[in-house]
Write a structure and sequence with these properties.
Number of helices: 11
Strand order of the largest sheet: 10-9-8-13-11-12
Distance between the termini: 34 Å
Number of strands: 13
Order of helices and strands: EHEEEHEHEHEHHEHHEEHEHEHE
CATH topology of the largest domain: Rossmann fold
Radius of gyration: 18 Å
CATH class of the largest domain: Alpha Beta
Length: 280
């Protein structure tokens, strides 16, 4: 019997070689500069995107893939398997889940189930990777759903923004908060909790902010999977990786650059950690 196919969206930030090796289909989200539309990491890759973002007077806009795009991909996957598990980013913050759901309802020759991960970037990515590994090992659709839903409480992400400018320009926080952050050179730490973006704390220096990231992650319990994510900040990602490597095997730390959609809202210079804690 063919393996269950695993689908996600490009907000999972899974490094392409890893996604390809695990047969993960990532549907590209959309970013627009003016009237020109690009597919995330198909027509526009992170290096070019961040260069344009830094020099653009206005923010790009972002949107979910069209329902028809999901339908086309579901039909293609249905030629290889009669079961698909779609694991998507936070449904309450994006139209991605709904577009995928509507498309799935229009496909009759395959059993499609969807999960709202309530996560983004590699905290979503780890759920997708877990499912893909288990699918390759022959797990059933119901087993995969139970695996992902069981892992959701154990997956976490925390990040440091280099600036509040892009979050403020994109309407993600008030102008006063952005002004304070700029004047005080605050490095805000943010996380995702129950599908919501929440502030963790404000730290006055980059050095201390990175230290706090490590402290929070290592203090969360035994770690099963670990990824460092950045937005046009490879040097910072390397520093964080080296700090984590004092405790966790460096060759098991995945490094990923977030793409245009999330990058529009966090701006360049952000770095974060996504991890899966082990079972107690």
């Amino acid at each position: 019997m063919p393996h269950v196919k695993i689908l996600t969206d490009s907000l999972a930030d899974i490094p392409p070689p890893m996604a390809q090796a695990l047969d993960i289909t990532a549907v590209p989200c959309i970013v627009r500069f003016g009237e020109t539309e690009y597919r995330d990491r198909v027509d526009l890759f992170p290096p070019e995107f961040y260069q344009r973002l830094s020099s653009s007077a206005t923010l790009p806009t972002t949107s979910q893939p069209a329902t028809g795009v999901f339908e086309d991909i579901y039909r293609k996957l249905a030629q290889e398997s009669d079961q698909i598990l779609a694991i998507h980013t936070i449904a309450s913050l994006s139209g991605i889940f709904n577009a995928s759901r509507i498309a799935a309802e229009n496909i009759s020759n395959v059993h499609i189930e969807l999960i709202d991960s309530q996560q983004v970037t590699m905290s979503l990515g780890w759920l997708v990777i877990l499912a893909a590994r288990a699918a390759r090992a022959g797990a059933s659709l119901s087993e995969l759903r139970a695996l992902v839903e069981g892992a959701m409480p154990r997956v976490h992400v925390i990040g440091m923004l280099n600036t509040l400018e892009y979050a403020q320009r994109g309407g993600r926080l008030g102008k006063g908060a952005a002004l304070v952050g700029t004047l005080l050179n605050v490095k805000p730490l943010i996380s995702i909790v129950n599908g919501e973006v929440v502030p963790v704390e404000n730290v006055r220096t980059q050095k201390r902010a990175l230290e706090r990231l490590i402290e929070i992650v290592l203090g969360s319990g035994p770690i099963q999977e670990l990824a460092v994510i950045h937005s046009a900040a490879p040097e910072l990602a390397q520093r964080v990786t080296q700090m984590l490597a004092a405790t966790f095997p460096e060759d098991q730390i995945v490094v990923s650059e977030t793409g245009p959609v999330l990058g529009t809202h966090v701006g360049p210079g952000a770095v974060g950690i996504a991890w899966l804690t082990g079972r107690y």
